[in-house]
Specification:
about 110 residues, Transcription Regulator spoIIAA, globular
C-alpha cells in the first residue's frame, strides 16, 4: 500500500492504492508510523490515488501533525485532478504544501 524511498535527505512515501478512504486509512496509518524516519521531511507521492474521502483527509492531517511534532514537514506531490480539486475545496493547501511534481517537492524539502 505504501512504499518508501530515500533521496537527497528526504523520504518519499509512494501510495500504491487507487483510493484512500475508511477501508484503508488505518492500515496506511500503521504503515506510515512504522516506516517513517523521525529525522527527515516526508513527501507523499499521490499519483496513483484517484479517490479520497474525509477519512483519507483526516489521515493526511494526522500524519502531518505527527511529522510536525518531530520538527519536520509533510509535503504532497503529484495529486490527480480529482484529488487536487478536493484539496482546494477543503483548503488543505493552507496546511500542507502540495506540488505538481516530485522534483519540486524534493527541492522545497531540501531547502528547509
Amino acid at each position: 500500500m505504501l512504499t518508501f524511498e530515500k533521496t537527497d535527505g528526504v523520504t518519499i512515501g509512494i501510495l500504491q492504492v487507487n483510493r484512500v478512504d475508511a477501508a484503508n486509512s488505518q492500515d496506511l496509518s500503521r504503515e506510515a508510523i512504522e516506516h517513517l524516519p523521525e529525522d527527515q521531511h516526508i513527501i507523499l507521492d499521490l499519483e496513483q490515488v484517484k479517490f479520497m474521502d474525509s477519512t483519507g483527509l483526516g489521515w493526511l492531517l494526522e500524519l502531518a501533525r505527527t511529522i510536525q511534532g518531530r520538527g519536520k514537514k509533510l509535503f504532497l506531490c503529484k495529486p490527480t485532478n480529482a484529488v487536487k480539486t478536493l484539496f482546494k475545496l477543503v483548503r488543505l493547501t493552507r496546511v500542507i504544501d502540495i506540488f505538481d511534481s516530485r522534483n519540486e517537492a524534493v527541492e522545497k524539502a531540501r531547502n528547509l
